[in-house]
Specification:
Strand order of the largest sheet: 1-2-3-4-5-6
Low-confidence stretches: 1-40, 222-226, 233-247
Structural class: alpha/beta
Mean pLDDT: 84
Strand content: 15-25%
Helix content: 25-40%
Shape: elongated
Bound molecules: nickel (II) ion
Number of helices: 15
Radius of gyration: 28 Å
């Protein structure tokens, strides 16, 4: 122990835990509550350091069932030969955690695009894996925000994010913890009891020095301009960096870097911490190395949140969200596609709704009024699950063959039937067979939505060709035509969703493609 203290002393002045009566004077929380140094009732001296135990430096395992609760999100863009990929994950519905993560994703995406001289415009086929698994792992790469699930147990969730820098902006790394209602509790620093922060930092420092002696990427100097910065839920200003950045493992525990070490911390089932120290400049100089920090029970450094997480990891139950429903998607920020299903409701529709619900996918249903009357409960459920309802006439005639009053009647009766079943009045209409002209546009009086991707599923093309058309055809803003009258179509939907996610698509209703403001007249696809 003495040699460690001496080494740190020699490198960067007095050990940081020796100041402020055991409290970190740079910590606003600790500083604001620190008793004056002359007060005799200052915090008692810390207990002896715990025995060094070899423990695995791995984040808690997340079960597939818990992972399935969360939805993977991706905002990606190509600018020339460069690419941008920003990942995050959302709980169902709308909640503060989703809002916080998407606001950070937007800020990073805008900064990345601006650094390339471009305005943000989402694309597909940019990031490997697309929107498949939520936050699989962090992969440091230029112009990326990587994310990693570090907790999804019972009523708690935790997401680490790492934002690669746009010079001269810094790397930012944060672990955000929230409850299952999406209420943000805090970042990694909130795992530590504020009064024990100085002692925790001492344990972190020792763990990093120990890690340096074991095989692995050398922990070292932070490359100029990419000094890590904490982005906590309640940001705290960090002091100016030292004029000359020291090298070696100690850089990670320099005052300006302590914030990010703790903000990015993960607590393990053992009650130990996992921190991520910056590694020495390598190929890209932007790596981190996971370092376990052994915490003995007597040290008592964990906050109530930290203890709560340890208990949740120990119980190891599936994440149970306290929010529900589909999450709003901004199709100006992520690349959207609209799946549309025509000619229902049918006996297949409820099964399709189950499939869409399990996959957190929003779709649009163009309903025939004559069928709505037969299955009002299905129509109500479709609306309640967050899907869009559209008007597909009463009996599916070719509208251009009908006189004006009959056209009006086909539309009006269907509007009334859908409203009676669901309480929703459709705001878009799809002409049967895509058959319409200027007269029909004028008579219908709402946007006439057709498609740019026709799967021709009604001709039973076989699963492979159907999936190829539905997955390979769309570009950003596409409207895909399918029918929930065909069992083969409904059966292929999971594969179609997975394929589109693999390309990086998110799913929106037709109105959602346009942010709710569908232009009048003819519509074949959303903004590109
Ligand atoms: Ni039709």
């Amino acid at each position: 122990m003495a040699s460690v203290v001496l080494a740190l002393t020699a490198c960067s002045g007095p050990p940081f835990w020796a100041d402020g009566g055991g409290l970190d004077p740079l910590d606003p929380v600790a500083a604001s509550t620190a008793p004056p140094t002359s007060t005799p009732t200052a915090e008692p001296p810390p207990p002896p350091l715990p025995a060094r135990v070899d423990r695995k430096a791995v984040a808690p395992a997340i079960s597939d069932a818990s992972r399935a609760v969360l939805q993977s999100r991706l905002a990606a863009m190509k600018v020339g030969d460069a690419s941008i990929a920003v990942r995050w994950a959302t709980l169902p519905g709308e909640n503060p955690l989703n809002a916080l993560l998407v606001s950070r994703a937007r800020a990073a995406a805008d900064a990345f695009a601006a650094s390339l001289g471009a305005a943000w415009a989402p694309g597909v086929d940019v990031a490997p894996g697309g929107t498949g698994a939520p936050c699989p792992r962090i992969e440091p790469a230029p112009r990326t925000v990587g994310c990693e699930l570090v907790l999804a147990h019972g009523d708690l969730v935790g997401v680490r994010t790492l934002t690669e820098p746009v010079e001269p902006e810094p790397v930012t790394r944060t672990a955000i913890y929230a409850d299952a209602a999406g209420t943000v509790i805090g970042d990694g620093a909130a795992l530590i009891d504020p009064s024990r922060r100085a002692y925790a930092l001492m344990l972190v420092a020792r763990a990093i020095v120990d890690a340096e002696k074991t095989p692995g990427p050398p922990i070292g100097k932070v490359p100029p301009g990419s000094r890590p910065t904490a982005t906590s839920a309640a940001p705290t200003p960090l002091p100016e960096p030292a004029p000359t950045a020291p090298t070696g493992p100690f850089v990670a525990v320099l005052p300006e870097n302590r914030g990010v070490l703790l903000a990015d911390a993960v607590v393990l089932a053992s009650g130990d911490l996992l921190v991520h120290a910056p590694t020495a400049p390598g190929a890209d100089g932007r790596g981190t190395r996971a370092v376990p920090v052994v915490i003995d029970a007597e040290a008592d450094i964990l906050s109530d949140l930290g203890e709560r997480i340890v208990a949740a990891l120990d119980a190891d139950t599936v994440l149970t969200p306290q929010t529900a429903g589909l999450t709003a998607v901004d199709c100006g920020f992520v690349a959207c596609v609209a799946l549309t299903f025509d000619d229902g409701p049918t006996g297949l529709t409820d099964g399709l709704l189950d499939t869409l619900g399990a996959a957190n996918v929003r779709a649009t249903f163009y309903l025939q009024g004559g069928y709505v009357e037969n299955r009002p409960a299905t129509v109500l459920r479709t609306a309640q699950l967050g899907h869009e309802l559209g008007n597909h006439t009463w009996a599916h005639p070719a509208l251009t063959t009908l006189p004006d009053p009959d056209v009006v009647d086909q539309i009006a009766r269907t509007q009334a039937a859908i409203a009676a079943a669901s309480g929703v009045v459709p705001t878009t209409m799809r002409p049967p067979y895509g058959d319409y002209d200027d007269r029909i546009v004028a008579l219908v009086g709402m946007p006439l939505v057709t498609w740019d991707i026709d799967t021709k599923d009604w001709a039973d093309p076989g699963r492979a060709l159907l999936v190829e058309r539905a997955v390979g055809g769309p570009e950003r803003g596409s409207i895909v035509l399918m029918h929930d009258t065909h069992e083969s179509t409904v059966a292929a939907v999971p594969e179609i969703i997975a394929g589109l996610r693999g390309r990086g698509f998110d799913f929106a209703s037709v109105s959602g493609l346009f942010g709710g403001a569908v232009p009048g007249g003819r519509v074949t696809h959303g903004p590109r």
